Every structure is written in C-alpha cells, then in structure tokens.
Amino acid sequence: MSYIKAEEILPEELIRQIQEYADGVYIYIPRKPGTRHPWGQKTDYKAELKARNDRIRSDYAAGVGVALLSRRYHLSEKSIRRILQKS
Predict the structure, then answer these.
(1) What is each CA distance from 22 to 6, 25, 32, in whole angstroms?
(2) Which of 47, 52, 39 is nearest to 79 (CA)?
(3) Is 16 within 8 Å of 6 (Cβ atoms)?
C-alpha cells in the first residue's frame, strides 16, 4: 500500500473538515464494498507460494525429512507440517 498526499486528491475544504477530527495523523480509508481484490490477485505472490508448497510436498514425498525441508525453505518445522497437511 502506498500513501498519497491528501492535497493531491482531495478538495481543500474537505481537508479542513477532516482536520477537525484527525489533525496531522495517518488515516486509512477502506475501499468501497465490492471493490476489494482478493489476497494475492494483484501480484504473483500467491502463485509463488503455491509453487513453493508444491515443491515442499514433492520433496517430502521423495523422502526429504521435515527438519531438512525446514532448513532448505527457511521455514519452521511447524510451518512445513502445516503445508504437508494441506496436501
């Protein structure tokens, strides 16, 4: 998420009104209902995690132990087990 200066997008009068309630603080303005993007839709991160988890499952099926997978993928053993349970 990036920040945008209020002066760049809001009318001066509206800024003065907002300052009556929140002067000099950061405010999060949520998206309108129905316009939110599902997690991971705007980036490839969701696909990257799926590919990593698929590799973990494949390595485990090939006999690689949880401790080694933990070190190899820089995850806790608990995280590795959680990934393996979601097969």
Answers:
(1) 13, 6, 21
(2) 52
(3) no
Cβ atoms of 57 and 80 closer than 8 Å: no
List the pLDDT tens digit at each of the 87 positions of the chain.
678 899 999 999 999 999 999 998 989 888 888 887 777 677 788 899 999 999 999 999 999 999 999 999 999 999 999 999 986
- One-letter amino acid for residue 76 of the chain: S
Which of 86, 54, 59 has the alpha carbon at shortest distance from 72? Answer: 59
Q: What is the DSSP letter of 4?
A: -
